[in-house]
Design goal:
The structure is a homodimer. Chain A is of the alpha+beta class. Chain A has one domain (about 10-105): Arc Repressor Mutant, subunit A (Orthogonal Bundle), CATH 1.10.10.10. In chain A, about 50% of the residues lie in helices and about 15% in strands. Chain A has a 3-stranded antiparallel β-sheet. The structure holds a DNA duplex (30 and 30 nucleotides).
DNA sequence: CCTTATACCTAAAAACATTATGCATAAGAT
DNA sequence: ATCTTATGCATAATGTTTTTAGGTATAAGG
């Protein structure tokens, strides 16, 4: 039994969080659930990765946060995209696309004959 | 002036090396040149990442190596894909595809209205 | 002889992820 | 009443990989 979801690739967590938050503010636990759901459990974010990432991004002023009450009636911290966060989302999306295309160029070239 | 090539995404260097070597044995310096060329300089592998990666992969028996003479008449170490390496190439290619598709599912969902 | 490209390597530091914990409460089940 | 599960935040220790920065050496062309 291998694990069903892969290790996070460097840099992709920030992009995922930025994108998820572009639809509206959410709290951490909900962000991680959305990532799991929207990727059909392909990508699962450990809490030990999620919360430090949110702090990092807030420090960099990509996000702002405020405490509030969740739908489940719990005290939670909501994160909101800042304008710098929106800029980052755009930039990192472009970079991700470029990276994928670059990988494709290598992977699509014929390798060793069977 | 930003740098023109991106940071490597975790895990993708191994896949790139495996793929490049699937066309035939090459030495380290040549591998890094091919990655640069085939990605049109989008991905540049630092030597400090390249050589440790080759050693790791050899330790894991994905590659074998032997010293030889390059086209430039230099003593170089040639790396060759092992059968386990071929297996890894297949597996990691599939994983990469799945990861890209998972990212796409998130990134393609409409975000915040302009 | 000087410079450039080629070619290998490693150590220190930074960055990020995993694993393992810990704490706390709402809600539903027994 | 109490147990369990899901929710929700957080950090510390560890591990892996990458960047940065340095070192060594030779072939070839000017």
């Amino acid at each position: 039994m291998g694990k069903q979801s892969m290790d996070l690739m460097r840099g992709t967590l920030d992009l995922l969080i930025l994108k998820i938050l572009s639809a509206g503010s959410l709290h951490g636990y909900e962000i991680s659930k959305r990532i799991r759901e929207q990727t059909e459990a392909e990508i699962f974010v450990e809490e030990g990765a999620l919360y430090p990432a949110l702090r990092r991004m807030e420090e960099r002023n990509w996000l702002t946060s405020e405490w509030g009450i969740s739908k489940n009636n719990r005290e939670v911290k909501f994160y909101l995209l800042s304008s710098e966060g929106k800029r980052q989302l755009k930039e990192q999306s472009v970079q991700w696309d470029r990276y994928v295309r670059a990988m494709d160029r290598v992977l699509k070239i014929a390798g060793s004959p069977a």
